Amino acid sequence: MARKPALSTDKLKDLGADKLAQLVLEESERNAGFRRQVKAALAAKSGPESIAKLIDRRLSGLERAKSFIEWDKARAFADDLRSLTDTITSELGPAAPALAIDRILRFIATHEQVFERVDDSSGRVQDVYYQAIHATGQLASSLPAPNADALPEKIMTALGESMHGYLADVTEAVAPHLPQDSLTRWDGDLKNAIAERQAEEAARKSDGWFYSMTSQWAGMRQTLASARGDLDLLIALELKKKPHMQDTLGIATQLLEVGRSAEALEWVRKPGRRTFGKADDGLSPERVNLEARILDATGDRSAAQALRWRCFEARLSADILRDYLKQLPDFEDIEAEDRAHAFTLEKSDPDVALQFFLDWPRLDLAAKLIATHPHRWNGGDWHILPKIAGLLEHDHPLAATILYRALLDSILDRARSKAYGHGAKFLGKLALLAQEVDAIRPGTMTDHLTYVAKLKKAHPRKSGFWTRVGGGDPKMPQETAARGPIWVKDEG
Asked: Of 75, 132, 156, 426, which sits most exposed with the smallest number of CB within 10 A?
């Protein structure tokens, strides 16, 4: 079969200007988004002001639009929005970044009214806005100093009351590219705005729940503090939050990076931000890793090692055990690793232990664990067990057989007809492994022929499965020249 010719700039140039122009014109007639890109490229020939006018017309249309966009039109709508932002960033941005950033902010400001009139369950439209937010940082890095200095005021004018959090996202994107004086002035303006808004809200008669911009503005102040390198202000702002909202690990990390280990240790041990649905016992691998690093920095290496081992015992984290072993002298790490593996084999939750041995990796111990708990594995875990069985079947056929049987039993017991093809494949695997497994299987485990006989006795009417199986091996559906596969109706 001949290979399709690959497209490249040089090959397209060989077509000649007339042929390329004709192709562009034909595609423009079919594709509205492409047509707009072509018009923008043509406008660029007249200078950035011409592109800006073209963009302004499209932004005005977006701002005026009121009609609802159904779900089946959302993809085309998102493509149209992406074409608009691409024009701003790719055509206008290189020529006039100050004009481009004004337009990209104007586009981002349309998000609330756009979300109200589009079914964006796929998230495509939202992705376009996130890409636009990311582009503000790239454009800000190209701004001349006077334009960069004026950017905070423009951002607040365009997005100052946005409830979707995009104001904070834009701040995070542009802050690293602004002059220090601009950051300081912006922080002062936000501080005053927070005080004024809080006074207004305190005087307001309570009429139920309402959204306050002050929390978003306070978060922006922290972003600005980080950009200015003002860690003390960042901490002071964090302390104003309720304890369960504080980013204790983030603050501890920054304190450790600047050598303030004693303060870092206080922060890492605070309860801090809660993760929904998870109890914080202080032994999450993320927290333990950071606290152990801080303890090492303070010189208390024994406490750091004790913490790592305690976390390993609680969570069976492979990463934490690796950190623990790295800190041990030569040869001691070998003994400690053997002790860790012995502990894991005796773990009360075999599922967690199995994941550890796969992460380490020690497939021999994973196989031993599976064989030790042959009835523990849930064949309903179809998203992970086939892969594990595949890893084990070459060197550890007994463990692979246990998993394949669990998977097949689950498919047939639940009459999962859509998975019968997989079940036939698993039975074929079991047949291939049978000779080797029957020589080493424990007495409590039936041989392959007995196992298949029990399946036939327990599931005699599942013809949708048995028609795919012949003598324990997978059997593909029959085909003819005139018809597709002949499937036998399942009576199970």
From this structure: 75
Residue 69 pairs in a beta bridge with: 118
For residue 42, name the pLDDT band (cuts at 50, 70, 90): low
Each domain of the chain, given as residue ranges in start order, spans 22-178, 241-346, 363-474
Greatest Cα pair distance, the chain, in angstroms, is 86
Q: What is the pLDDT of residue 64?
A: 95
Q: Partners of 118 in the beta sheet?
A: 69
Overall pTM > 0.85: no
Structure tokens at 467: 């028609």
Lowest mean pLDDT among 141-150, 239-248, 270-279: 270-279
- Residue 302 in this model has a pLDDT that exceeds 60: yes
Residue 227 CA, chain-centre distance (Å), reads: 26
State the helix-helix crossing angle for 385-392 and 350-359, rounded to 10 degrees.
60
Average pLDDT in the chain: 89
Beta bridge partners of 469: 474
Q: From residue 162, how far is each of 157, 193, 219 by CA, in Å?
A: 10, 15, 14
Measured from the Cβ of residue 71, the count of other Cβ atoms closer than 10 Å reads 11
Question: What pLDDT, on the 0 to 100 scale, is given for residue 180?
Answer: 96
Q: Which amino acid is at 152?
A: P
pLDDT at 223: 97
Q: Does domain 241-346 have CATH number 3.40.50?
A: no
- pLDDT score of 47 more than 80: no
Rounded-to-integer distance, Cα 331 and Cα 20, Å: 69
Predicted pLDDT of residue 29: 67
Q: What is the pLDDT of residue 22?
A: 74
Range in 140-154, 209-223, 224-238, 361-375 the model is least confident about? 209-223
Give the residue among 184, 185, 173, 187 at the shortest CA–CA distance from 139. 173
* Residue 111, token pair as written in the block: 């998000």
Residue carrying the six token digits 């009576």: 491
